[in-house]
Amino acid sequence: MAEKTGKCMCGAISFTARGSLDRFNICACDMCRRITGSQFFSVWLNMSELDLSGADNIRTLQSSDWAERAFCGNCGSVLWYRPTDGAEGVGLSLGLFDDVTGLVGDNHWYTDKAICQTVTLPPAHTLTEAETEAQYNGGTD
Ligand SMILES: [Zn+2]
Ligand SMILES: [Zn+2]
């Protein structure tokens, strides 16, 4: 069983996740695009496999009749998508993880709405973390 840590942007909420943690899903539905600003990359696990710190900072929104979205009340980081039918499953945002090595893509939903497939990307200026920070005086964040 794998174990991975993660946190929201401001660090008010952190977690240790356990489970297989070897696959991620991508959703580009209208709600996922808007709440993330792009697409929602997530890892599916059970709430019982998630140890949360700073849970008093979590805010939830009932986003449909069957699911909620959660985010950090301080920095706005998207935390999860979770069915509210009483089941254990939760789609935890992949972007929160400290280390995503070893994960592979599984499902990609609403591909016809995926931003990279619906806009024309110009030739990319690709920069590593070190190159980006050198060019922008310490980074873009
Ligand atoms: Zn936060
Ligand atoms: Zn979605």
TrEMBL record:
Belongs to the Gfa family. Keywords: Lyase, Metal-binding, Zinc. Residues 4-110 form the CENP-V/GFA domain. Signal peptide: none annotated. Gene3D superfamilies: glutathione-dependent formaldehyde- activating enzyme (gfa). InterPro entries: CENP-V/GFA (IPR006913), Mss4-like_sf (IPR011057). The keyword Lyase applies. It holds the Pfam family GFA. This is GFA family protein. SUPFAM superfamilies: Mss4-like. PROSITE patterns: CENP_V_GFA (PS51891). It comes from Roseovarius pelagicus.
